[in-house]
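From the methods appendix. Each design record in this collection lists the tokenized structure first, followed by the designed amino acid sequence. Records were kept in a plain field format so they could be parsed without special tools. The example shown here is representative of the layout used throughout.

RECORD:
FOLD TOKENS (131 positions):
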């Protein structure tokens, strides 16, 4: 069951469908961003996604899903292919650079909804590709 939730979540991500992503999340979601602060709740997650959509266009491919036996934890490994669209605060200037790097997400679920998302990728690799 957890992998079905993740399939819907990542399909919405790839479609740029923020509402579709939010549909898979619990109201009390905790979002651990790579190299960033924790965000709590769906409104904070929406704001994060809207910011990301302004600065980046990304697609996740080569997605492999993993699920713990009890369905309360799941993970995904993937390749991020993207374009840096607009300069993000504290990062190099954007001018349409493309990038490709491995990434992963770890998730907790309760009652068929994602309650925690922890995302990892190699920031140094990304910086080298866009600098």
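DESIGN:
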């Amino acid at each position: 069951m957890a992998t079905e939730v993740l399939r819907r979540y990542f399909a919405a991500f790839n479609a740029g469908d923020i509402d579709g992503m939010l549909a898979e999340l619990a109201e009390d979601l905790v979002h651990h961003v790579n190299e960033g602060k924790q965000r709590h709740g769906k409104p904070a997650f929406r704001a994060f996604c809207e910011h990301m959509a302004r600065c980046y266009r990304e697609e996740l491919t080569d997605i492999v899903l993993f699920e713990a036996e009890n369905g309360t934890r799941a993970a995904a490994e993937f390749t991020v292919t993207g374009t840096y669209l607009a300069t993000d605060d504290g990062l190099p200037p954007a001018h349409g650079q493309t990038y490709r790097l491995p990434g992963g997400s770890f998730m907790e679920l309760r009652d068929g909804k994602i309650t925690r998302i922890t995302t990892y990728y190699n920031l140094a690799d990304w910086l080298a590709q866009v600098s």
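APPENDIX NOTE: The chain has a mean pLDDT of 96.
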